[in-house]
Amino acid sequence: MDNVVFLIMRRMRMPLLVLIGTYAVAMTGMALIPAQDAAGNPVPMSLFHAFYFVSYMSTTIGFGELPNAFTDAQRIWVSFSVFATVAVWLYAIGTLITLLQDTTFQRAILESRFRWRVRRLREPFYLVCGYGQTGTALVRSLTDRHQRAVAIDIDPERVNLLKLDNLREYVPALCADAREPSSLEAAGLRHPLCKGVVALTNVNEANLKIAIAAKLLHPEITVICRADSQEVEANMASFGTDYIYDPFDTFALDMAIAIQSPCLALLSKWLAGYEDRALDAPIFPPAEGRWVLCGFGRFGKAMYRHLGDQGLKLTVIEALPHKTGIPKEGVVHGRGTEAVTLEQAGIGDAVGLVAGTDSDADNLSIIMTALALNRSLFVVARQNHLHNKVLFERVGAQVVMTPSSIIADRIRVRLGTPLLAELTMLARVRGDDWACELVSRVVALVDEHPPHVWEITIDETDAPALCAMDRRGSPVTLEELSRDPRDRDRTLPLIVLLRMHDGARELLPAPDVRVCSGDRLLLCGRADASRSLAWTLRNLNVLDYVLTGNAAPGGLIWRWLARRRARTASGI
Known about the structure:
CATH class of the largest domain: Alpha Beta
CATH superfamily of the largest domain: NAD(P)-binding Rossmann-like Domain
Oligomer: single chain
Mean pLDDT: 89
């Protein structure tokens, strides 16, 4: 608001001074020129009457000679004054219109409105820096979960697109450079309800500056960054960035897990999936044989490293090997779009293909040419732009990697259900047999859509009834909590995946495990099961029914009627 007032005063200062000066001269002349009353006697005009007359004279809304008829001298003065005041008003109004159309003033108005809306936020929110493909997907997933977000981007077109997006929650947006600390502060970095900063720009240096500024200005805040370079990742980690995500390394690691443990990869996809989509089918990448990698950039290097760790034979095709680097096995020079290049790389006896260049057109051409030479290939495609989704769905690739979606999904899981990331890391130790058994249990709970995954903290906010029962010294087990609050003989369709107690993590805890205050639980199942469980955890009467079968009346009137009925029965 200070900038708005400053711009108004700076632009309108001269018009206002000229207007005030013209009014003062016109009023002074009217007060000094001799006037006369109805009888013709000389009567001086007061300054009040002069101001009143000049006010409606300058706007040309009509004339009335007040308080008495004017003399010729007064009428001559009025003739000059009316032209002067009208010209000054036109000058002032023209300057005001020019000010309203000025881009700097409009930007100041938008920034002032944005700051006001951020200050009025009364719910925890995340500051998302960069509203590209990744930022768009993340903001949409956050608002779908009814979490609040504030967005900032340097591109005005992206900010305008955000205003047109049909989001479930209103998202304040600012067009500014997130690398500047003042922009981050304006977007709510120091707001007491700001839970974290997410840097998702396409420039590693920009994400690095955002992370540094966030940690310096608000050291306790959670900072999540996107990085496409190992050097930048190391730099971010050196000053305490909480979570760093590389889309290429993340996807390559997932592919390595899918080769080694298909059920574990499928379980991770199901638990992190969107509930309104169909369940992902399992994929079985070849664990033996030769793979052909087209493109040895950041994505190609990540795939080369992780697939090589699985003992696979790899052949690399690269158009600019002296720029990107040459692997130790050598490289086939070319783009991979030509049949000759693919045949030179041994595509005929290969089992897998990675089309991983930074050009969607080249990747589509590589896949079509390779499948024409070898129909049995397992194809992994890199999709750089979301608008090409339909093309990649039809090209015949078993797995499509979209960098923006990978990062958005990982951050969505991290912000929405942090224990799910813990579960994924612990599950890798258990092996594929354990994951296959859990997949079978999950399939028994859900139909065609991924399970609903949620977290519960046993505290006064999420579970006041259970905390009250714990204070009484009445232990409650997981099996008792899993009972249906409408029929305690039935079990809710849910699975307790992980229990965190005093820092210790327990995968698939036993049904007889007691739940204590301070525990954190990760569960999956149907959405109605989460609502029923929340009812049990919040309502003491419902929890008592689940534990004992005693259906006590809930409201004040019903309890009063129950006591009255009991007294009547005892009196009889």
